[in-house]
Amino acid sequence: MKKSVLIFLFFIASGSMSAVFFYHSSDTEDKSIEVAQSQQDTEVDRQSPKALLEYFMSGVGEVSLLDIEKQISSQDHEVNGIAVDKALFDQYVLYKKAMMALENTDGPSLSLTALEGLHHQILALQAEFFTFEQQLLLFEKENQLRQLALVKLQLTQNSSSNDDFEHQWEQELSNMPAYIQESFENAELLTKLAQTDQLSEQEKQLKREALVGAEASERLATLEQQRARFQSQLDEYFSIRSTILEDSTLSEEGKKNAILLLQGDLFSTEQLKRIAALERMHDRQ
Fold it and tell me: Do 87 and 67 meet the contact criterion of CB atoms below 8 Å apart?
């Protein structure tokens, strides 16, 4: 298994890279509580207890932990039989800090023994911060995915041939729950799609069509074009914005108005909140 594939599968499964999903706003939100700007006009993600915790975690850095705890305490948050409250959030913050420390150490070699050791370290952290029931509800799926990644690595090293590997791997995968099979296959598919970025445009199109079909391949191409166009606009915006901010002939109010006009020229109304968040990230660099 290639290094990039293994790292992708291993750390996606460990939950170290998490996505935050946003929805339309809820009218019941307490407006007296300060909410992260990137979360305004959104509703908390209740797909799972872990998704809910990650939603709250995404506000760290924009508002204080105290404000996030107030946001959590202002409503009852229960998902799949687990109460997501201040106490659980505090535990999760400590767990994430411990995970960051673990990931920021000198990376393990790609030997099976080293990766198994990292897997057990992650399990030990989960046991340190959470009850057995909480561990099952928060981490069961990602732990199974990570374990499956290790099994696959072991099979690649020990199989006598490609056919032998494929046979054993299919058996291992067939013994897992359907949602684990689907998650693992999706992770592998994403990795294969990412690897097509190094190909020529024609080779990329042919490879993607083989992986996901012509229609999905076309949608991916359209999305890439949109992203490239937005990145070009963003680069132009930050360049002109920098010139405006450095213009000593403009007052602070004049600079502000010039930047607002620039935003209106380059971006749609729907993109402006995203621009505000990207500005903060850009200015902190």
Answer: no
Predicted TM-score (pTM) of the model is: 0.53
**Residue 205 within any structural domain of the chain:** no
Cα of first residue to Cα of last residue in the chain, in angstroms, is: 35
One domain for residues 78 and 165: yes
Mean pLDDT of the chain: 76
Q: How many CB atoms lie within 10 A of CB 208?
A: 21
Among 35, 40, 113, 42, smallest CA distance to 74 is for 35
At 225-264, the pLDDT tens digits run 888 898 999 999 999 999 999 999 999 999 999 999 999 9
Whether 209 maps to a domain, the answer reads: no
The per-residue pLDDT for range 42-91, each reduced to its tens digit, is 555 566 777 777 777 776 666 667 777 777 766 656 655 566 777 888 88
Q: Name the H helices within the chain.
A: 3-14, 49-57, 65-73, 86-103, 112-129, 132-158, 162-174, 178-195, 201-212, 214-245, 252-266, 272-284
7 within 8 A of 146, measured Cβ to Cβ: no
Number of domains within the chain: 2
User: Partners of 82 in the beta sheet?
Assistant: 79
φ/ψ (deg, to 5) at 60: -65, 130
Q: Are residues 35 and 80 in the same domain?
A: yes
d(CA 226, CA 203): 20
